[in-house]
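Appendix B. Raw example, untouched.
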Amino acid sequence: MGVGRIIETNECVAEGAAWLAARDTRLAAALALTGPLPLRRRPDGFDQLLSAIVSQQVSVASAAAIWKRLEAARLTGPRGIMAAGDEELRGCGLSRQKIRYARALAAAGIDFAGLRIAPDGAVVARLTEVPGIGAWTAEIYAMFSLGRADVFAPGDLALQEAARLLFELPDRPKERVLRQMAEAWAPWRSVAARLLWAYYRVAKDREGIR
């Protein structure tokens, strides 16, 4: 399999949203509530994955503060991470486990240019070989850093909750079930994810979900 469609512009997202709305009345109703969906494209590369590791299990504000210290110390690239001592990395706010993950990422020798032309499954498989990078992080990287149009992240709790609300399910669907549901949204599963995230924010405001 090749790479498939790449989402580069807001027009790409709108095209995918229209395709989904034409095929599923629930998704059409969600889109009517959310309005146009965001592009959410990001750069690719080592620093994006390091940032994802930094953000694990801490607040957005804490992650931003840690990242700012890493940038100030010029420790956002693989060579800097490998050369830095534990004390320096701890001083930036990294835990012992995150130091191990950051070093594993630096040592992994990921061919980031090669990932741009690798099939979706190969991207996720390569990234999840690295300690500290799970399926969710790899799928989010494929979606937003590589712009893949047909990647989904069924382990995401907000997507699970949005699907429960939108499709009036008795319980939040498990990862396996949501992955199966998302098969109907190919080849625009990344846009379906954007739509469900946007719908979740609308539903959260309406129903006071925490």
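End of appendix B.
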